[in-house]
Design brief:
five-stranded mixed β-sheet, Nucleotidyltransferase, domain 5, iron, alpha/beta, 2 domains, transferase, single chain, binds 5'-O-[(R)-(carboxyoxy)(hydroxy)phosphoryl]adenosine, binds zinc ion
């Protein structure tokens, strides 16, 4: 079963062809990072317009990269939400028209379920066993889920304010590093010493599974303005990253313990973070938990993960009706 995946929920226009939910035949991503960089965040109207420009070339490139024609496709899977409505509508409208024209089914995929399916796409890595716990950490979401099967997400806890990636982006904006902040702060942190400054870890003393990152963001902003350049930016970045990683890893393993699972998946843009990878791997080793984190090319938004999740929607007969629409919130 060959599924064309389409993703346009935020600032990446992506198309991919995936076989049977696990084998990537092609995966193309057009990033708008250059466009939004100067604004320090994604500008929704600009994102929509650039999706319109990129969607056809991306789908054509995905088909060409695996030597396929549209007629070879068995189904189309598209991100239905959550995300920016104007951005989602571009991919959604395109996917539905494409499926209608080809007379093949179209399924609408939940973006977060898509991220979770990114851990099933690398043949050299053993996939998680259901039920497992998933930590989804991206620019728009930070949440812990119990995943009993391929199509069910049971929310265990989530951020009460900023997402972890959003905290990275906001700190980068304050430091004048542009958008997105994650990769640049991650690189800076690797050059610094985290122990020189201490930033607060919200809710770490509590037994719950919720997160909060806005206090940390304010603490770093305050420190930056009061320090007057005495502490190196690398040390500040390292201390900030340590605080984020400490909370993410502690809560993720607390969730695994509470749910009695043996597998933990950490997915989404922030899963590319080197500090997070290292600490999560150490903790998993110590506790005998199987940790699943995608390679960086599958952490950020992509369409292969959407096609992978779409395969299961199709198996379950969850095909979009003519009245289906996108949705903005989880
Ligand atoms: O999953 P994604 O591409 O889009 C959303 O669905 O939000 O995630 C993008 C987010 C951005 O906030 C970006 O700063 C963050 O992921 N990010 C990182 C790293 N690479 C990307 N955060 C921390 N460390 C990284 N290496
Ligand atoms: Zn995402």
């Amino acid at each position: 079963m060959r599924i064309l995946g389409i993703e346009s929920s935020c600032d990446e226009t992506a198309a991919a062809v995936v076989e049977d939910g696990v084998k990537i035949l092609s995966s193309e991503v057009a990033s708008q990072v250059e466009i939004h960089h100067r604004y320090g965040g994604v500008v929704p109207e600009l994102a929509s317009r650039h999706h319109v420009e990129a969607i056809c070339p991306m789908v054509e490139a995905a088909l060409a990269a695996c030597g396929m024609e549209a007629g070879d496709l068995d189904a189309v899977a598209v991100t239905q939400g959550p995300g920016l409505v104007g951005a989602l509508l571009v991919g959604f409208g395109f996917a539905r028209a494409c499926a209608f024209g080809l007379n093949i089914p179209c399924v609408g995929v939940h973006h977060l379920l898509g991220h979770i399916h990114s851990v099933f796409l690398e043949p050299e890595k053993t996939p998680p066993v259901y039920p497992f716990v998933a930590l989804v950490v991206s620019g728009g979401h930070t949440g812990l889920y119990h995943v009993p099967d391929a199509l069910t997400l049971e929310l265990l806890g989530q951020t009460r304010d900023d997402a972890a990636g959003e905290a990275y982006d906001k700190i980068a904006k304050i430091m004048g590093l542009g958008y997105p902040g994650g990769p640049v702060i991650d690189a800076m942190a690797a050059e610094g010493e985290g122990g020189r400054v201490f930033f607060p870890r919200a809710f770490l003393d509590k037994d719950g599974l919720d997160f909060s990152f806005s206090g940390l963001k304010s603490a770093v902003a305050r420190f930056l303005s009061e320090d007057g350049g005495k502490t190196s930016r690398a040390d500040i970045a390292a201390a900030f990253q340590d605080a984020v990683v400490d909370v993410l890893v502690s809560k993720a393993f607390l969730a695994v313990e509470k749910m009695g699972c043996r597998d933990l998946a950490i997915v989404g843009g922030v899963a590319a973070n080197r500090g997070l990878k290292k600490k999560a791997a150490q903790e998993a080793d110590m506790r005998g938990i199987r940790l699943h984190m995608p390679s960086p090319f599958l952490c950020g938004d992509n369409a292969a993960m959407i096609a992978a999740a779409g395969y299961h929607y199709l198996q379950a007969g969850k095909v979009l009706g003519l009245d289906a629409d996108v949705f903005s919130r989880a």
